[in-house]
Amino acid sequence: MPKRKGRLEEIFSKALYADDPKLYSVYYRDCDSLLEVSLPEFVNVSENFELIPPNRVMKITKEGRVLYSKKKPRI
């Protein structure tokens, strides 16, 4: 049985291959701050998810609408 894609993988795949990636914003953790970049910039900065793993992605929006959101862990 083939492995099923997770929600985050589905959003990235659709955005990159079936939609306009410039419409998407990615919010990710960088040390203690939250950075916002466009999806094409995120793919470039993360070197195709090698430097910034998907588990650091906190939120993805498309034209202001939240498509994915991860709750901040309690410390």
Which structural traits does this protein have?
75 residues, 4-stranded antiparallel β-sheet, globular, 24% helix, 4 strands
Question: Summary?
Answer:
The chain has 75 residues and is α+β, with helices and mostly antiparallel strands. The chain is built from 2 helices and 4 strands; from the N terminus they run αββαββ. β1 (24-30) and β2 (33-38) form a beta hairpin.
- Biggest β-sheet: strands ordered side by side in the sheet: 2-1-3-4
Task: Determine the number of helices (DSSP H or I, runs of at least 4 residues).
Answer: 2
Low-confidence stretches: none
For the largest beta-sheet, the strand count, sense and barrel status come to: 4 strands, antiparallel
- Gyration radius over CA: 12 Å
What's the count of strands? 4
Q: What is the average of the pLDDT values?
A: 88
Strand-residue proportion: 25-35%
Distance between the terminal alpha carbons, to the nearest Å?
38 Å
Task: Give the structural class.
Answer: alpha+beta
Order of helices and strands, N to C?
Answer: HEEHEE
| The number of domains | 1
Q: Which percent range fits the helix content?
A: 10-25%
The rough form would be described as: globular
